[in-house]
Model the fold of this input.
Amino acid sequence: MIVGEFSLGTPILTVNESGRHVLVGSRCPVCGDVRLPSRTLCGADLSECVPHELSGEGTVYEAVRISLAPAGFEAPFWIGYIDLAEGPRYLAQIEADEDAPPSHGDRVTLTVGRLGTSAEPLLGPIFRKVTDAH
Done:
C-alpha cells in the first residue's frame, strides 16, 4: 500500500512518533513562513527551511463537487482549498455527506483515506468536517 503524496521528492504525509498520520511541510527558522509542500529555501529570505509537522486543522476556503470524475476516481466527491491553521492553503479531497456539503468557513480536520479506485491502494490526505458535540 502506498502512503502519501510526493512533491519535489519529499513526502507530505507521514506517520509521527505517536503513530498518527500528519502533514509535513517546511518552516523558515528566520521569518516563520510555513509551506506545504515543503521547500528547501524560504521564498522570503532564502534561509534554509526545516521540516515542520502541521496540525491537520483548518477551514474550507472553497469547495466544489466533482460530478464527472477523472479516470481512477468515482464520482461524486468533493475537493477544495483548505486554509490550514499554520497558514498554507492546500487543495485536497473533502469527505462530506450529500445533505451537508462543505462550505466556506467550515472547520475541517485531517484524516487519511484511500484516494481513487486503482488496483494498488493509495492513501492520502482527506479532510472531514468538524462537528461540534453538544
Remarks:
- Residues 2-53 form one domain.
